[in-house]
Amino acid sequence: MIDRKRIAHRVLGTIVSTYPGRGPNGEDEAMCDVGAIALSKDTGPSGGFGEVVGMQWNLVKVSQEHGILRRTSGTDTLRVGEQIQIMGQHACLIAAAYPWYYIVDSSD
Questions:
Q1: For residue 25, what are the CA distances in angstroms to 72, 75, 77, 86, 102?
Q2: Contact 54/108 with Cβ under 8 angstroms?
Q3: Bridge partners, residue 50, by sequence
Q4: Among 17, 37, 65, 93, which is most buried by a count of CB atoms within 10 Å?
Q5: Distances (CA, A) of 39 to 33, 50, 97
Q6: What is the pLDDT of residue 39?
Q7: Least confident of 19-23, 36-40, 59-63, 82-86
Q8: What is the mean pLDDT of residues 3-30?
Q9: What is the pLDDT of residue 1?
Q10: pLDDT at position 15, please?
């Protein structure tokens, strides 16, 4: 089991589009401005390319600049313009992509 409170790296992103019911089994999807440049194309233990902090959404597809999120369960909705935090799968590549970092409360 992954102890998410021990994961320090998070990438801030914005929802740019929503797609209700577009997933393969009717799940809601959304597009964010976080893609391979921000996170890498590595998948990992949680499946996909990353998880939205505090919500039941995973980053399931990435292009160079954008990512597609899919709701995994629950009723959390995402709105255009909403900011989200994504925990990626490969800390080394994520850390190398940014010139500065902020300390956030890890109790989420």
A1: 11, 15, 17, 23, 37
A2: yes
A3: 59, 88
A4: 93
A5: 11, 8, 8
A6: 85
A7: 36-40
A8: 88
A9: 45
A10: 98
Please report which helix (H) or strand (E) contains residue 36, including its range. Answer: helix 36-39
85's CB contacts (< 8 A; 6+ apart) are 10, 11, 12, 13, 52, 53, 54, 104, 108
Range with the largest mean pLDDT of 10-24, 39-53, 77-91: 10-24
Strand 50-52 relative to strand 11-19, pairing: unpaired
The structure tokens 């899919």 sit at 70
CA 38, chain centre distance (Å): 10
The answer to whether 79 and 69 have CB atoms below 8 angstroms apart is no
First-to-last C-alpha distance (Å) of the chain = 17
Read off the tokens for 47.
């499946």
